[in-house]
Specification:
alpha/beta; Rossmann fold; 2 domains; six-stranded parallel beta sheet; two-stranded antiparallel sheet; 9 helices; about 40% helix; binds magnesium ion
């Protein structure tokens, strides 16, 4: 029997944003935490416009940035900034308990769980902390074998290259992997085309009217039946 692992998505699978939290006036360069960086640069003596430009320059220079790399490059006080980042998450990140229950059941069955997400790893950890899957300090629960974010994959998971990078970093073969997420393309068809074993899709919105691959199962209660894919 092949030992299988779970590769779970985060956004819209485990967590989601409080309605209104991503409204355009609350974002900077499309990001919900950059206004906090901008404010801290302003405290350090830059105008709000200069602060915005400094952040823009930094994310252009370092495309695969993490929050900690930005804080360091911008010479900001890490502890204070992260405390505000975490507060933003507590205020604005909501949790899908059905997905959390599924992940806990996987861990209880000793199935290694990885997360793969279009956030930098430290952004993933802050979201997972809201779901009780990481500590406040960002340490994953035992049973979570790894977190693949944009800074380690060097891109987003809509590209097969990123799946290749994540899977080889984890020293796994694609056939060991069952994916779990809300997006038929990114969490299903793309990793399946790359050779993963099976995908479990948890629809958070009506699914596109297309024929799904036979290797895609739609998440359903009772959760227990979903584990057949891991032990076949
Ligand atoms: Mg998602």
């Amino acid at each position: 029997m092949t030992s299988r692992v779970l590769f779970a998505d985060i956004d819209n699978t485990v967590t989601f944003y409080r309605p209104g939290s991503l409204s355009p006036e609350r974002l900077l360069h499309g990001n919900f935490l950059f206004p906090i960086l901008q404010q801290h640069l302003h405290y350090a003596g830059y105008s709000m416009q200069e602060s915005s430009s400094l952040i823009q320059e930094e994310i252009t220079r370092n495309v695969f940035w993490s929050y900690s790399s930005l804080i360091e490059s911008l010479n900001l006080p890490s502890e204070k900034v992260f405390a505000e980042f975490r507060q933003w998450h507590r205020d604005n990140i909501l949790v899908h308990q059905d997905a959390v229950a599924f992940i806990h059941q996987a861990m209880a069955k000793c199935i290694p769980v990885y997360f793969i997400s279009n956030n930098p790893v430290d952004g993933c950890s802050m979201k997972l902390a809201c779901a009780g899957l990481c500590t406040e300090a960002g340490t994953p629960l035992p049973g979570i074998a790894g977190i693949f974010g944009t800074d380690v994959m060097k891109g987003c998971k809509d590209r097969a290259d990123c799946w290749r990078q994540a899977i080889s970093t984890a020293n796994l073969s694609p056939q060991q992997i069952v994916t779990f997420g809300d997006n038929v393309q990114e969490d299903g068809e793309i990793p399946l085309a790359f050779g993963v074993f099976h995908s479990i899709i948890i629809p958070r919105a009506p699914l596109p009217a297309i024929d799904l691959s036979p290797q895609i199962t739609i998440f359903q209660e009772p959760i227990d039946s979903l584990f057949s894919w891991f032990f076949s």
